[in-house]
Amino acid sequence: MVELTPIEQIIVKAMEELGATKDTSIKTADDITKKSNRPKGLVTNSLVTLVQKGIIKRVAREKAAGYYVIKA
Fold first, then answer.
1. Which site from 17, 20, 24, 38 is most exposed, i.e. has the minimal number of CB atoms within 10 Å?
2. Torsion of the alpha carbons at 6, 43, 30 and 66, rounded to the nearest 10
3. Average pLDDT in the 42-60 region?
């Protein structure tokens, strides 16, 4: 298991609560920011790190990128 920082744990938990657990139910950084109640810059930086760690997946879309958890 990859070690997650406290903020990364909060973000993964928020994504799971939003139901962003498969590619058919992706959520934007704004959705995750609202749910986690953390500053958007902190959330977006953590999303990038979580993608690099292989915990979540980023899906590029026309307007805003979406994210979902691939392993918790």
1. 24
2. -90
3. 96
The domains of the chain, with CATH numbers, are: 6-69 (1.10.10.10)
What is the four-CA torsion angle of 52, 49, 19, 2, rounded to 10 degrees? 70
Dig out the tokens for 68 from the structure.
Answer: 């979902």
Specify the pTM: 0.91
Parallel/antiparallel/unpaired status of strands 56-59 and 27-28: unpaired
Phi first, then psi: give them for residue 49, nearest 5 degrees: -65, -45
Mean pLDDT of 45-54: 96
Q: Which residue has the tokens 């139901």?
A: 19
Query: Among 25, 29, 6, 31, which Cα is nearest to 70's?
Result: 25
CA distance 63 to 61: 6
Counting every residue written for the chain, the total comes to: 72
